[in-house]
């Protein structure tokens, strides 16, 4: 496979204007159109005050236009990780304005980005992108506040080179489809940066259903970027699509899902382990249940009290980064994953801050104490909450009934939380259990969700 193009050369490298970049349905966009659309938006952004612009897109082609235009204009693209209007309002201090492919009801500057129907004969030369420029991503922190993660263009380029070297010729001639969004690092890296650096055409829409995957053009071959949440919902009765490489990340893929996927597609998934903070760290080709993870070249783990610290060519800090995960290391450097530490959990491959769930609950009328924790039933993990209510809360429960009041609380959380973060299991208690140090013992809290035999 040819050498990956650095992001700064995606538009300037000597490639024909008719090179395919993206497609949707029967239509598509070429490199010439991308050059034109980026040039137009860059000129607009250069006239705007403010350096930091939030990117909120469903269409991946328009996301690329906005990403490149922001960087060429000398601005900083900010990926808030969502397009929820209520949360964008709350996070206004994080950015100067919003770029989107649809009208959003937000205060401040909003620029709606669209693609030109045809390419202009000439494009204004674009300012160069400095490798020191960065992309900012926001993800759930352990405190419940959005955690800012900064990735330089050089880091994104290094990650693309590492992945291209790992997957090599397997990606030749592939088109890229995905069931993940580009607003998080996994989607940004695999759905945007990797295909653009290798010249692989990408699908502009996210696949939400197995039917969309099965309906792909059977004359092509595909790289499918997915997640365990999507793969466990596959309908294997459908006609299998011509997927040549399947990559899964964002959470643990069960062996049952891996086997179902293999029986349907005729290939085993490649799994990637990493995080937004660290980038990719390890991989495994899932041909067996207990397959160990292999660190990528240059990745090393070391003990740091009761946690693990990782260093990597993709981590700029000399002392590396602390992991939220618990790993069992083998002598040969391979490892198995045992779970997560701290107050951030993954549910349906979404990073859920239990602290944020608690804070959102405490902002509701009638609730004076809240404890959120993961609850597993029937092999499915969801959020459970224990609540202590005040006099007004007790009166609401008495007047409405517990089911109606919990439904009202759930509705009140929807503007703020991911759907999978909205609690599924609710317990109203008189007093929050604590130990002699006045600290919550989460094993004791878990017992309150145990089902009676």
Question: How would you characterize the overall build of this protein?
Answer:
- By secondary structure, this protein is α/β, with parallel strands linked by helices.
- The chain has 3 domains: 1-152, 3-Layer(aba) Sandwich (Rossmann fold), CATH 3.40.50.12780; 207-342, 3-Layer(aba) Sandwich (Rossmann fold), CATH 3.40.50; 344-447, 2-Layer Sandwich (GMP Synthetase, Chain A, domain 3).
- 27% of the residues lie in helices and 29% in strands.
- The protein is built from 12 helices and 25 strands.
- A 6-stranded mixed sheet has the order 6-5-3-4-7-8.
- Strand 1 and strand 2 (27-30) form a beta hairpin.
- Helix 1 (31-46) crosses helix 2 (60-72).
Helices, strands, pairings?
Elements: E1 20-24, E2 27-30, H1 31-46, E3 52-56, H2 60-72, E4 76-79, H3 85-90, E5 97-100, E6 109-112, E7 134-140, E8 146-152, H4 153-167, E9 174-178, H5 185-198, E10 202-203, H6 210-214, E11 221-226, H7 228-231, E12 243-248, H8 255-265, E13 270-275, E14 279-285, E15 294-295, E16 300-304, E17 307-311, E18 321-322, E19 325-329, E20 335-340, E21 344-347, E22 350-353, H9 354-362, E23 367-377, E24 380-389, H10 391-400, H11 402-413, E25 425-428, H12 442-447
Parallel strand pairs: 1-10, 3-4, 3-5, 4-7, 5-6, 9-11, 11-12, 12-13, 24-25
Antiparallel strand pairs: 1-2, 7-8, 13-14, 14-15, 16-17, 17-18, 19-20, 21-22, 23-24
Helix pairs in contact: 1-2, 4-5, 10-11
Main pleated-sheet profile: 6 strands, mixed
Query: Which bin fits the share of residues in helices?
Result: 25-40%
The unreliable regions are none
Gyration radius (Cα, Å) is: 23 Å
Number of strands: 25
N-to-C CA distance: 58 Å
CATH homologous superfamily caption of the largest domain: ANL, N-terminal domain
The CATH architecture classification of the largest domain is 3-Layer(aba) Sandwich
Coarse morphology: globular
Q: What would CATH call the class of the largest domain?
A: Alpha Beta
CATH fold group of the largest domain: Rossmann fold
How many helices? The count is 12
The class by helix and strand makeup works out as alpha/beta
The pLDDT mean sits at 89
Q: In what range is the share of β-strand residues?
A: 25-35%
Lateral arrangement of strands in the main beta sheet: 6-5-3-4-7-8
How many domain modules? 3
């Amino acid at each position: 496979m040819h050498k990956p193009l650095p992001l700064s050369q995606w538009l300037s490298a000597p490639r024909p204007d008719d090179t395919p970049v993206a497609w949707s349905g029967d239509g598509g966009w070429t490199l010439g159109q991308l050059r034109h659309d980026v040039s137009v938006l860059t000129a607009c952004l250069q006239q705007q005050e403010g350096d930091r612009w939030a990117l909120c897109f469903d269409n991946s082609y328009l996301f690329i236009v906005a990403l490149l235009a922001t960087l060429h204009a000398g601005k900083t693209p900010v990926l808030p990780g969502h397009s929820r209007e209520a949360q964008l309002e709350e996070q206004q201090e994080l950015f100067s304005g919003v770029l989107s492919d649809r009208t959003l009801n937000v205060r401040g500057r909003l620029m709606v980005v669209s693609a030109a129907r045809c390419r202009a004969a000439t494009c204004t030369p674009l300012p160069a992108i400095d490798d020191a420029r960065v992309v900012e991503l926001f993800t759930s922190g352990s405190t419940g506040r959005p955690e800012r993660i900064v990735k330089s263009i050089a880091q994104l380029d290094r990650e693309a080179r590492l992945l291209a070297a790992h997957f090599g010729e397997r990606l030749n001639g592939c088109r890229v489809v995905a069931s993940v969004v580009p607003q998080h690092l996994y989607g940004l890296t695999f759905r945007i940066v990797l295909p653009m650096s290798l010249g692989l055409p990408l699908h502009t829409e996210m696949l939400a259903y197995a039917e969309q995957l099965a309906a792909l053009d059977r004359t092509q071959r595909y790289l499918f970027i997915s997640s365990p949440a999507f793969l466990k919902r596959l309908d294997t009765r459908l006609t299998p699509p011509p997927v040549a490489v399947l990559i899964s990340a964002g959470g643990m893929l069960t062996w049952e899902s891996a086997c179902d996927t293999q029986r349907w597609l005729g290939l085993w998934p490649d799994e990637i382990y990493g995080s937004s903070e660290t980038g990719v760290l390890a991989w495994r080709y899932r041909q067996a249940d207990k397959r160990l993870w292999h660190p990528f070249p240059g990745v090393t783990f070391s003990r740091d009290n009761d946690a693990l610290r990782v260093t990597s060519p993709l981590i700029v800090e000399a002392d590396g980064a602390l992991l939220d995960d618990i790993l069992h290391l083998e002598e040969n450097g391979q490892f198995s994953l045992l779970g997560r530490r701290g107050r951030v959990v993954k549910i349906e491959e979404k990073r859920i801050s239990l602290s944020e769930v608690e804070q959102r609950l405490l902002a509701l009328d009638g609730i004076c104490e809240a404890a959120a924790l993961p609850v597993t039933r029937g092999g499915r993990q969801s959020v459970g909450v224990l609540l202590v209510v005040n006099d007004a809360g007790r009166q609401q429960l008495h007047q409405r009934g517990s089911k109606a009041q919990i439904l009202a609380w759930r509705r009140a959380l929807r503007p703020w939380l991911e759907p999978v973060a909205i609690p599924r299991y609710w317990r109203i208690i008189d007093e929050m259990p604590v130990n002699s140090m006045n600290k919550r013992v989460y094993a004791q809290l878990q017992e309150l969700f145990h089902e009676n035999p």
